[in-house]
């Protein structure tokens, strides 16, 4: 199997994540718990994630702001980002995370594709975030603590 973004998008694991995304997106408590789990995983895992790390952390802040009803996002974008985060936290997906050096390659590919799909929404959030009190965006480590 050759790993491509299309392979990951078409996987059963991503289909499962997409089917559960609306449930999480519409429940601030579930979304907050998911974000805590994703934040912890992102802090401990490096490797292929390094290329998407900044956008991943921005998306986690974006979703946190949505869960706290401080920021709104088009439903389609919200659902897609939540699905990608659900996929990211799944230990057994297209390439299980426990497979050394490959386990996060599919996660990174799907996250990169997702970030391209929602680039304008993510850019708007970053502008909004920069304009908040003091104009300082929260530090990456603040994401998990912000709940």
Quickly describe the structure:
By secondary structure, this protein is an all-alpha fold. 65% of the residues lie in helices and 0% in strands.
General description of the model:
The protein has helices at 5-9, 12-25, 28-44, 53-67, 75-89, 105-117, 119-131, 142-145. The protein has 147 residues and is mostly helical. α2 (12-25) packs across α5 (75-89) and α5 (75-89) runs antiparallel to α6. It is globular. Mean pLDDT is 81; it is low at 137-147.
Search tags:
single chain, 147 residues, mainly alpha, globular, disordered C terminus
Structural class label: mainly alpha
End-to-end distance, in Å?
40 Å
Number of domains: 1
Order of helices and strands: HHHHHHHH
Radius of gyration, in Å, reads 14 Å
Number of H/I helices: 8
How much of the sequence is in beta strands?
Answer: under 5%
Provide the helix percentage: 55-70%
How many strands, which pairing sense, and closed or not: the largest β-sheet?
A: none
Question: Regions with pLDDT < 50 over 5+ consecutive residues?
Answer: 137-147
E-strand count: 0
3D shape: globular
* Mean of pLDDT: 81
């Amino acid at each position: 199997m050759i790993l491509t973004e299309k392979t990951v998008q078409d996987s059963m694991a991503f289909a499962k994540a997409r089917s559960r995304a609306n449930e999480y997106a519409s429940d601030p408590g579930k979304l907050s718990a998911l974000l805590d789990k994703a934040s912890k995983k992102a802090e401990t895992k490096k490797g292929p994630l390094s290329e998407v790390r900044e956008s991943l952390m921005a998306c986690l802040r974006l979703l946190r702001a949505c869960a706290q009803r401080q920021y709104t996002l088009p439903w389609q974008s919200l659902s897609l980002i939540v699905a990608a985060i659900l996929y990211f936290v799944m230990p057994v997906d297209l390439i299980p995370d426990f497979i050394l050096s490959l386990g996060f390659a599919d996660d990174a590919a799907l996250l990169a594709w997702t970030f391209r799909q929602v680039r304008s929404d993510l850019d708007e959030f970053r502008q909004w975030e920069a304009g908040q009190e003091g104009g300082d965006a929260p530090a990456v480590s603040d994401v998990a603590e912000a709940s």
